[in-house]
Amino acid sequence: xxxxxxxxxxxLVKEFKGFIAVAGVSLKVRRGHIHALxxxxxxxxxxxxxLLTKFLEPTKGTIRYKGVDITREAPAQIxxxxxxxxxxxxxxxxxxxxxxxxxxxxxxxxxxxxxxxRSHDTLTQLDPxxxxxLAEVGLESYAKMVAVELPYGRKRALEIAxxxxxxxxxxxxxxxxxxxxxxxxxxxxxxxxxxSANRTILMxxxxxxxxxxxxxxITVLARGSVLAEGAYAEVSAHPKVIEAYMGTEHVD
Length: 252
What we know:
Layout: E1 5-16, E2 19-30, E3 34-38, H1 45-52, E4 60-65, E5 68-69, H2 75-80, E6 83-85, H3 98-110, H4 120-123, H5 127-136, H6 152-165, E7 170-174, H7 182-195, E8 200-204, H8 208-214, E9 217-222, E10 225-230, H9 232-236, H10 239-245
Parallel strand pairs: 3-8, 3-9, 6-7, 7-8
Antiparallel strand pairs: 1-2, 1-4, 4-5, 9-10
Helix pairs in contact: 3-5, 3-6, 5-6, 6-7
């Protein structure tokens, strides 16, 4: 595996009782790049994410991270290696403040997440770092707000802040702009671009404006297989990609 690539899969397959959801996907994610995984509904994008983070075990194939075979490792081991994932569904603690959400993520990194007997005062030592992370995602003025009261786009920004708290080298973002209006899409798009400095991002995304605007490399999946790969201009003009998107969402 070249040092240029932080993540590589070879012949990744996932079968569900005879149904092949992922059919021999070979993927190379270049270190320091934003790599988008796109495709029509049912193309196998989220299944690929589940295989990479070991929420599912591959039927066949290998996954290598920084040159190490992680195919049979557990999700917790994957996270400790620096691969951290966000989900389509909001995954913040709704009745804690924005600051407290980030602080919990920082506690996980320290390994004392479940030390509930610690006094509140001992946790305030995490506040400066939590404040830095909130500033990085533009939420410093929301620190004392209860998370459930955040606008949807800001809530996704909070999820990115809690992901950053775990100091990932590789961030996997699953539909980061799903369900957002134009203003929130633009904000989160710029946020992803900002936090990509010094780290690698692999994202599943339907919004082609986002994909075209910030992706260095795009892999197109269809029926569980790689259909095309390259820069946006290249894949958007590919005849098979255009055919795959006809009747769903055109890539222009």
